[in-house]
């Protein structure tokens, strides 16, 4: 479950904040034994939404988006002085997505990440990736891309493009294509070629 996120400087800070969240009824202290702790990488966060076409044997970049999180979105809009006065518990609950763009010089790295994920998935879990997936990553000040999460499905951010299609989908098809339409196109093409088993599991 993507709930109960918080940032801690060290072990003491972790237990102090965990106790405070437990007292507020937001987490259970006994759940800490099964909690994942991740290194915080500071930078700009993005979701890259891809489509791997098993029929065409190609990786397509569909769109980029960013998460909108409550109550983080409200907290970072406050001046630092007010943040310190209020000392709010930031919750990081995903409540939406907004379209985003990425500088063109980073697109090659984004494609490299996508290809590496497709290759790894094909090696580790047969038949590998079919259709949509999302890589969530941070861009550091050194312009390194650090993937911190994977969604092997239609990413939540693609809903932002439901009516207009992804920013990059038009480059492949000459018109805006939503992720749902792209899936339907893949199935239809597979049926025509007698290859439906390649796009289903």
Explain the overall architecture.
The chain has 201 residues and is an alpha+beta fold. It folds into 2 domains: 1-37, no CATH class; 41-198, D-amino Acid Aminotransferase, Chain A, domain 1. The protein is 30% helix and 23% strand. The protein is built from 6 helices and 5 strands, in the order αββααβαββαα. A 5-stranded antiparallel β-sheet has the order 3-2-1-4-5. It starts with 10 loop residues before the first helix and ends in a 9-residue tail after the last helix. The model has no long low-confidence stretch (mean pLDDT 90).
Q: In the CATH scheme, what's the topology name of the largest domain? A: D-amino Acid Aminotransferase, Chain A, domain 1
Number of strands: 5
Q: Summarize the main sheet.
A: 5 strands, antiparallel
Question: What's the number of domains?
Answer: 2
Multimeric state of these chains? single chain
Structural class: alpha+beta
Report the sheet-strand fraction: 15-25%
Fraction in helix: 25-40%
Number of helices: 6
**How far is the N terminus from the C terminus?**
25 Å
Average per-residue pLDDT, rounded, comes to: 90
Name of the CATH superfamily of the largest domain: ATP-grasp fold, B domain
User: Which regions have little confidence, pLDDT < 50, spanning 5+ residues?
Assistant: none
Give the CATH architecture of the largest domain. Answer: 2-Layer Sandwich
User: What letter string, H or E per element, gives the SSE order?
Assistant: HEEHHEHEEHH
**CATH top level label of the largest domain:** Alpha Beta
Write down the Rg. Answer: 20 Å
Q: Identify the strand order in the major beta sheet.
A: 3-2-1-4-5
Shape: elongated
